[in-house]
What we know:
Blueprint: H1 2-8, H2 11-18, H3 20-43, E1 49-51, H4 56-59, H5 61-69, H6 83-95, E2 98-100, H7 103-113, H8 127-148
Parallel strand pairs: 1-2
Amino acid sequence: HRRQFEKKADSGATELVLNTQALDESWRVTLEVIKKLEREVRADGGRLALAVIPTITQVYDRYWELLRQQHPDADTRGWDRFRPQEILHDFARRQGILYIPLSQAMARAAKENGKTFYLDGDYHFNERGHQFVAETLFPVLESLADKLKPAPRD
């Protein structure tokens, strides 16, 4: 697991973080796309909910440290592994979009019970990871769906 991580984990995302200009443009485009999607969902009578799937480096401290070690020439002291979620949460709040936090909850659960939420040697969820996300999303989405149900007609 560690060997594969050292070769490829989050390499594209990290390069983007190190390139501030590209990062700013990427965020601008991302937030505009979310705004457009939110308008389309509302026009159809729905409400957009936003949840961000965490990376393995956000969930597990050991992988976060490995990622930082991969960039010895960068000042990683100011890196915040949950910054993308904070940006999106703040944006969602300002836009009236429902934000469902997953990342820090998953990191806490992994730390508390030592469970692995990702496939070995692959950075996709295993069954436990999918179950955690489903159990987190379901009650929120069910409540949202109940609120959006049309009133019964007489």
